[in-house]
Amino acid sequence: MTSLFKVKNLSKSYGNGVKRNFALKDISLDFPINVSVGIVGESGSGKSTLARCLIGLLKPDSGSIVYKGSDVSSFNASDYRKFRQDVQMVFQDPYTSLNPRMRIQEIVGEGVKVFDLAKNKDELFAKTASILNQVGISEEMFSRYPRQFSGGQRQRISIARALAVGPKVLICDEPVSSLDVSIQAQILNLLRGLTKNLSLSMIFISHDLGVIRYVSDFIVVMQNGIVVETGFPEQIFEDPQNKYTKSLLHAVPVPDPRIQRPRYLLK
Amino acid sequence: MTISRWSNFRFSALKRQNSLLSIFDKLIFILIFFILVLAIFGNFLAPYDPYLVNLKDSLLPPSSEHLFGTDVNGRDMLSRILVGASSSLLSTLFVIMFAALVGVFFGTVSALGPRWLDEIIMRLSDVALAFPALILSLGFAAALGPSLRSAVIALALTWWPGYARLVRTYVLEIRHKEYVDAATVLGVSKIRLIFKHILPNALVNLYVQITIDVSAVLLVISGLSFIGIGAQAPSAEWGALVADGRNYILAGWWTVMIPGVVICITALLFNLAGDALRVMNDPTLARKGEK
Amino acid sequence: MSQLPGPILRIENLSVAITPKHGRPIEIIDQIDLSVKTGERLAIVGESGSGKTVTAMAIMQLIDGASYRGKIEFNNENILMKSEKELNEIRGQKIAMTFQDSLSTLNPIMRIGEQITEVLTIRGIKKSIAKSKTLTLLAELGFKTPVDVFDQYPHQLSGGMRQRVMIAIALIAEPQILIADEPTTALDVGIQAQVMSMINLLATKKNLTVILISHDLGVVAGFADIVLVMYGGKIVERGNADDIFLRARHPYTKALLNSIPTVMRDRSILLPTIDGVTVDPTNRPVGCIFQDRCPVVQSLCKVEIPKEISEGANHRYSCFFPNLEDVV
């Protein structure tokens, strides 16, 4: 029984000299298959860097990433191709994660073409249409450009793009942070539903504790490049062990004046 | 921090559905198209032979027979201008096209390739930029003999580095955009990444610069012809026309004024077109009252 | 600062429309009323397209090419009637504003100290006096070494610090009203609490009236005395913080509060969502503004605009059927 991702002693830093930023400091984690793992942390915690290392957009300085038993750095071209099809990503900013000069039908269909998942134009359209419908985008909008859609719709399109290639793992890097609360709820429900129906493993990155709690089966708390605590939601939220986790929980804004006012020193 | 940023965000969809070009802008593009047609078909449209010397008709003022009058050699000015359009505009466009293609190539390679290659290309462009176009043209004129061709070569060689720099900057900016990352994650090949994702977005602003540069290059080429190191007589290139008429300005103002005005108007049109393109790309750049 | 009787700011039946290049004017705020007393803390909440930022911009008259109907009264004088010169006297000096994105609002090539003192020096105050006032204010805002910060550039500071600098720029001329537009977005939760406490402290100390614009209901719950909920350019519900958070009546307010994944709710229950997308300002519905997304919409709602119902001293909302979903 192999884990999905096994991260060992991973380190990554940016810049050099005095301004060197140690984004990841020797972290080790195990991601089980078919589990939604939530990685929560504030800015500078390294959570986004970790996500990008896992998906191969960043090369770590040291340490190893093992995907389903094989070390990622030992991949040859065809291993890499398989990996790319298996592991997909949804990005944070709906306004810059879609190519403004491509119609959304093309954007979503690109992955299908890359992996030769359609034999002809009709099949390509069928696959693209199917996944777009699943995320709630109707056919008359297929030939439009990203700028003609709202933030929430763009995120749906991003999700469709990721799912179109049939991945086994979905890494979501702050996918709802730029969205309004009511739209956020829609996207979260969509992700929860899709991962269940398609039996996907999900790695969800966010700074919002409430969101993390809603989507995760297992939670990893990060601070300044290290993992400070891990556990099931009940453990983390009801019985946090680590001082940082406790302070983080304490600072989360709650829409209840009785709880919030004392925090802001209001009488 | 005014509402124009906010409204751009919310109403951009609306704005693009309504045409972004005012009637004025549309008129400009129509005129440019018209001029380009003249440039290509000038030879066929000319009512008289632009090169045939006919001394008895020397320096005739504009009339119904000769719309723009005749020059000192009795050649019809309208015909000369129509034919000259080819020389002036097509050579201008050649310079721009060459500079653009070379500039895009080197700019892209510079931005996406290894550091050492970037350094080499940038230093090369520094050298090319250090040569003032005028001096280089003189050099070419001295070496190859003055002609439109040597002027064009000199200009093309000094113009590309500007574009290389520009494209390099654009590509460097685009290459870290999230949609490029997304395409990488999707397994898209490097070639497709460059041609489908990076370049189309990076070059958006280049089209504006190119359009505006047409007027700049036109002025340089006609200027070089005017001072004698570009197109030579009997060429009907517009700058050469102005040079031809220079000595007869009192006896026949039309020999100088008309080609001069034509050069001016053409340069102006391309400038305005570039402006219109700029606003099309980014409506927030519209001037007050243009919104 | 003399205290005039009545509210310090009163907006009466304000509608704001902007005219795009082609086409008819688009109304982005539709007949809103509000009034704020001196020293009060008012919050305007809403999502994108609700009109909350436009309201703030309208008070400061910062909108290019907008047309206004109605009244905005500041100290019993109608702002909409004032000349640009008079408005410049008010902006920054009597009513000040901070913005969400500190990086693009602060001048990147100007030192922090100068950006703050500039507010005073352009009004004729001596440089040395301006500098000492600035240092005092920076200390009040929690900076441990104001003298160092004075000479730094914006990019050398963290997001929370830059936000506090913006507050300094806003407060240095001792305005009567501070409008804070999304002061905590893009800040970590710990820093958010810091910034909000800071604003609270200074507001109490200087008897400042604060108008907070935010989409973050948690932040609003901790700070506001009065809350206005906006949707599609209209105020759909208003009341004390307790009224809104504990006794919400309008279906939109209720749905909004329910769709927040708090750390306390039952994880296994699906998050209730509000279907659809926000109102298209070029295509406003006849009748209730929320009809296209309301879970309990009735035929009456599509024909008539609901009148405001009052409940308690400050609690008002516009809905024909506020308790329907509880029954249904």
What are its keywords?
heterotrimer; A: alpha/beta; 10 helices; 10 strands; globular; C: 328 residues; alpha/beta; Rossmann fold; 2 domains; eight-stranded mixed β-sheet; 32% helix
Largest sheet of chain B: none
CATH H level of chain B: which superfamily? Answer: MetI-like
Please indicate the percent range of residues of chain A in DSSP E strands (runs of 2 or more): 15-25%
CATH topology of chain A: Rossmann fold
- CATH architecture descriptor of chain A: 3-Layer(aba) Sandwich
CA-atom Rg of chain A in angstroms = 19 Å
Global mean pLDDT of chain A: 91
Helix content of chain A: 25-40%
Provide the CATH superfamily of chain A: P-loop containing nucleotide triphosphate hydrolases
Number of domains of chain B: 1
Q: Structural class of the helix and strand makeup of chain B?
A: mainly alpha
CATH C-level class of chain B: Mainly Alpha
Question: How does this model look, in words?
Answer:
- The complex is a heterotrimer of chains A (267), B (291) and C (328).
- Chain A has one domain: Rossmann fold, CATH 3.40.50.
- Helices cover 39% and strands 23% of the residues of chain A.
- Chain A has 10 helices and 10 strands.
- In chain B, helix 2 crosses helix 3, helix 3 packs antiparallel against helix 4 and helix 9 packs antiparallel against helix 11.
- With 328 residues, chain C is an alpha/beta fold.
- Helix content of chain C is 32%, strand content 22%.
- Chain C has 12 helices and 12 strands.
- An 8-stranded mixed β-sheet of chain C has the order 6-7-8-3-9-10-12-11, with helices on both faces.
- At the A-B interface, helix 2 and helix 3 of A face helix 1, helix 7 and helix 8 of B.
Quick summary of this structure?
The complex is a heterotrimer of chains A (267), B (291) and C (328). Chain A is an alpha/beta fold. Helix content of chain A is 39%, strand content 23%.
How would you summarize the topology of this molecule?
The complex is a heterotrimer of chains A (267), B (291) and C (328).
Chain A lengths: L4 E10 L6 E11 L4 E5 L6 H9 L6 E6 L2 E2 L5 H10 E4 L13 H11 L6 H14 L16 H13 L5 E5 L7 H17 L3 E6 L2 H7 L2 E6 L2 E6 L1 H6 L4 H9 L5 H7 L4
Parallel strand pairs in A: 3-8, 3-9, 6-7, 7-8
Antiparallel strand pairs in A: 1-2, 1-4, 4-5, 9-10
Chain B lengths: L2 H15 L5 H23 L31 H36 L2 H16 L2 H12 L3 H27 L3 H8 L4 H13 L1 H24 L10 H8 L8 H28 L10
Chain C lengths: L8 E10 L7 E11 L4 E5 L6 H9 L5 E9 L2 E2 L5 H7 L4 E4 L3 H4 L6 H10 L5 H14 L5 H5 L8 H13 L5 E5 L7 H18 L2 E6 L2 H7 L2 E6 L2 E7 H6 L4 H8 L49 E4 L3 E4 L5 H4 L1
Parallel strand pairs in C: 3-8, 3-9, 6-7, 7-8
Antiparallel strand pairs in C: 1-2, 1-4, 4-5, 9-10, 10-12, 11-12
Helix pairs in contact in C: 4-5, 4-7, 7-8
